[in-house]
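Lecture notes, part 5. Sequence design as translation. It can be helpful to think of inverse folding as translation between two languages: the language of shapes and the language of residues. The source text, in structure tokens, appears below.
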């Protein structure tokens, strides 16, 4: 089994407040990982650190067996196997813009171009960032719009769409450049329940039709339990629980996770 990401004891703080604390995780090709946790609990920061939109303060990240940021070693202490005497900012080993070409991403804000049609929005990155041939990009874009139930609106502009429709366009765009990993950051946080259910239905189809790994930050525990291969519960900066989705949701072991599940069950 091939690891895409290997994350070892990464940490991130803002103004002295620890947001991520020694997180370790491996993500394999095609794997679906869902990260659960309270609002403003570090889920988005974790995704942003994997994409290098935020820099970790400690630990290291590898991708495809190669260093991305920090220094990996057999015991995780540094390049020579010895603990560093003084903390230092992890070194960057990749060009960020090239590294991000491997990924698709959807944020709550969607970030569609208002002066481009739905289809143009979907293929923009594939054409101009990943340099996919125009004919191939357009064919893929139309196919993705059909998958997310937006084919009939390919020529419309974002301002004419509902929030749910815009998010489904953003979801299609994330898969358009044949990414190795797709990051989904709280993609239903601005949607009502019917639009959320429709988006989740489209996401299941995309997962079945594409080979990309998916890393999803969400509070929808029931969906995550059915959708993910690996479930992680992030609490106070740490993965308090991590493992089989069905087991974690049906047999939570920690008090914080039990309370979290109790708080979200009303929306199941």
């Amino acid at each position: 089994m091939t690891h895409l990401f290997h994350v070892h004891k990464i940490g991130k703080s803002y103004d002295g407040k620890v947001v991520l604390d020694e997180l370790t995780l491996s993500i394999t090709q095609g794997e679906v990982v869902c990260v659960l946790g309270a609002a403003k609990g570090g889920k988005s920061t974790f995704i942003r650190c994997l994409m290098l939109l935020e820099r970790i303060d400690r630990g290291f990240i590898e991708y495809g067996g190669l260093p991305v940021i920090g220094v990996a070693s057999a015991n995780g202490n540094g390049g020579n196997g010895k603990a560093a005497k003084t903390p230092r900012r992890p070194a960057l080993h990749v060009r960020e813009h090239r590294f991000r070409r491997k990924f698709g991403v959807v944020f709550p804000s969607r970030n569609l171009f208002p002066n481009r049609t739905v289809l143009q929005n979907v293929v923009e990155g594939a054409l101009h960032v990943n340099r996919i041939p125009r004919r191939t990009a357009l064919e893929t874009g139309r196919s993705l719009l059909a998958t997310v139930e937006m084919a009939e609106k390919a020529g419309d502009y974002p301002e004419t769409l509902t929030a749910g429709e815009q998010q489904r366009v953003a979801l299609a765009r994330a898969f358009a450049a044949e990414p190795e990993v797709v990051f989904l950051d709280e993609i239903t946080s601005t949607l009502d329940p019917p639009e959320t259910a429709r988006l989740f239905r489209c996401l299941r189809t995309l997962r079945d039709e594409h080979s990309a790994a998916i890393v999803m930050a969400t509070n929808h525990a029931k969906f995550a339990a059915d959708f993910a291969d690996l479930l992680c519960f992030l609490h106070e900066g740490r993965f308090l629980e991590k493992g089989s989705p069905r087991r974690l949701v049906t047999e939570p072991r920690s008090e914080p996770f039990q309370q979290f599940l109790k708080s979200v069950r009303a929306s199941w």
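The translated text above is only one of many valid answers, since several sequences can fold into similar shapes. The domain at 31-52+96-267 is CATH 3.40.50.300 (Rossmann fold).
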